[in-house]
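Continuing from yesterday's entry. The apo prediction looked reasonable, so today I'm repeating it with flavin-adenine dinucleotide included to see how the binding region is handled. Same sequence as before; SMILES copied from the compound registry.
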Amino acid sequence: MKKNTYSYVERNHILEQLKQAHYDVIIIGGGITGTGIALDCTTRGLKTLLVEMQDFAAGTSSRSTKLVHGGLRYLKQFEVKMVADVGKERAIVYENAPHVTHPEWMLLPFYEEGTFGKFSTSLGLKVYDILAGVKREERRKMLSRAEVLRKEPLLNGEGLLGGGEYVEYRTDDARLTIEVAKKASEKGADLLNYTKVNGFHYDAEGQLTGIAVQDVMTGQQYRANGTMIINAAGPWVEKVIALDRHIEGKSLLHTKGVHIVIDRDKLPLRQPLYFDTPDGRMVFAIPRNGKTYVGTTDTVFEEDLTHPKTTLEDKKYLLRCIQSMFPEAYIGMSDIESTWAGVRPLIREEGKGPSEISRKDEIWTSETGLVTIAGGKLTGYRKMAETVTDLICAKFKKAGISCGKSITKGLRLSGGNFSDPKDYPRYIDMKAKELATLGMSIEDGANIAALYGTNADTIMHLKKEIHEPSDLPLPILLTLHYAIHYEMAMTPVDFFMRRTGALFFDMNWVQTWKKPVMDYMAHVYNWTPERKEEMAADLEQRIADATEAV
Ligand SMILES: Cc1cc2nc3c(=O)[nH]c(=O)nc-3n(C[C@H](O)[C@H](O)[C@H](O)COP(=O)(O)OP(=O)(O)OC[C@H]3O[C@@H](n4cnc5c(N)ncnc54)[C@H](O)[C@@H]3O)c2cc1C
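Holo prediction written out below.
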């Protein structure tokens, strides 16, 4: 087994040996879908390469509502199988990664003429419990109007009839993706970020034999050879298909979903809520680490897929939703601290609007052998990966190449090495005290243990590895060093957006530490002054994207 290959140093090694290597499977796309497939393939004994043109999780997989859930609302569209499949996956994700999956009671208030009534809420949640195989202690509870208002006094009381409560799992989508990627790397897969596929190679029969890739950091072109090539490029799947000789497949509709972040003091919700909007949709309001985030929107999107922007209209819409549900919260434009926008790659269905189109995944193979997977949910990533890898294995078996059975159902993700997920809170307490002995506060120690789970053990011992000068406080320095050397962070945006989530949830922290973080990274990567300026400009642009509307 290889050790710590998920670092920027190893990235260079993987690139250098690409020419000589032959992979069983090459995966295009380092979101949750691609990393999930990489983990399944490598643990079945297939030699696996994953290439990602941006950072891992930089696409939709860092821009979701950040819930590991069955999607209650899809029951209204009779997507029974999808709710059942995805719902059951929740428990598996939780077992394997309790440090990125946190169960919380979600309140679903119902109103006169609302989306759900008393009967449909009760029935819907009951069906959800059964379909998703929900544990006894997490099954739905029905609440009277008075109980709902006691639980959430900020709610609009007008027309309120009562509510339901059910358990949802809050996650950090980017961290989940990175923990999957880290595990895949630990199990032998080669993973490269900032490596873009810009062409394909074929044999005499026109079957794919490899990919042409560019190291986005240096501009250098490489070739990688592989037997099977998987297109897991999310919103970009059609662009990847367009690089192939035989352009075929399903057509995608892109829709944009925006979330806004507000200080929890301004919108002091006691628990997550799922509520009606004035235009007959439903949105979430979710407290998280001193903030509350609200979303999402669902509008057709035809602009830049790489950096989808929040518009003034998106913000106004979500403020109107807040205003109608929490009329006494008085949230205004200036209270929005940060935002993010994500793009859904939906399989087009004639005559259906954005919110009506199914979220289920589809897999198809082109004449050249390119396997494409599109659609789906973050929550169902493991099962999707298993299905895709089963398909690949069937082909390998026909060719006499052995391929094991999927083991990911019981495989702990990186950082999730707990025999029982319930040990996680105890572990945080214990590690916080140990980390404090290094010279940080118990609170900082607890934050590190909560974020990295059992990988906090590695972080404990990093101090002696750090040789670069820095003014950063110890907890940040350890986190940054870990991001670079153990999580392949290549840019300050990787660190602030996807390794820590601070660009969405703690903008003050970003503003306070951006300069010393930049200095440290410049030192490690030996950036020229021009390169450092580019990196700084990139970070400023992403800060502007999160804080300003177009
Ligand atoms: C607003 C919103 C809210 C959502 N909320 C939830 C939720 O709460 N729970 C849930 O389960 N699901 C949710 N989803 C769905 C979920 O986020 C997606 O299903 C999932 O993230 C898709 O992952 P992916 O890996 O397929 O795509 P992506 O994460 O977009 O990954 C595809 C990757 O491919 C890379 N790529 C593209 N072209 C190339 C190339 N030529 N070479 C190399 N790499 C390339 C891209 O850079 C990208 O990183 C939500 C989606 C949206 C938009």
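Comparison notes:
- Residues 28-34, 51-54, 58-61, 63-67, 69, 196-197, 232-236, 240, 257, 296, 342-344, 376-379 surround flavin-adenine dinucleotide (CB under 6 Å).
- The longest strand covers residues 160-171.
Will overlay with the apo model tomorrow.
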